[in-house]
Design brief:
Order of helices and strands: EEHH
Structural class: alpha+beta
Distance between the termini: 34 Å
Low-confidence stretches: none
Mean pLDDT: 87
Number of strands: 2
Number of helices: 2
Radius of gyration: 13 Å
Number of domains: 1
Largest sheet: 2 strands, antiparallel
Oligomer: single chain
Strand order of the largest sheet: 1-2
Shape: globular
Length: 62
């Protein structure tokens, strides 16, 4: 019925994030925030937690 996923909550004001285990219904489609990026850019972001958070923070402000 559910899948376990890592959920991240980010506050761009205080620049703090937390992670926790969350349960997501199996039928729910999760959005891949990096899906539209070229492969090399995606891989670069996946290697650096700091760069990944900066990228996602920039998208949240759009």
């Amino acid at each position: 019925m559910f899948e376990r996923c890592i959920g991240l909550a980010w506050c761009s004001v205080c620049r703090v994030y937390i992670g926790s285990m969350v349960h997501v219904p199996r039928k729910r489609a999760l959005v891949d925030a990096l899906a539209s990026l070229p492969r090399d850019e995606r891989e670069r972001l996946e290697r650096s937690e700091t760069s990944l958070i900066a990228f996602l923070d920039g998208r949240a402000r759009e």
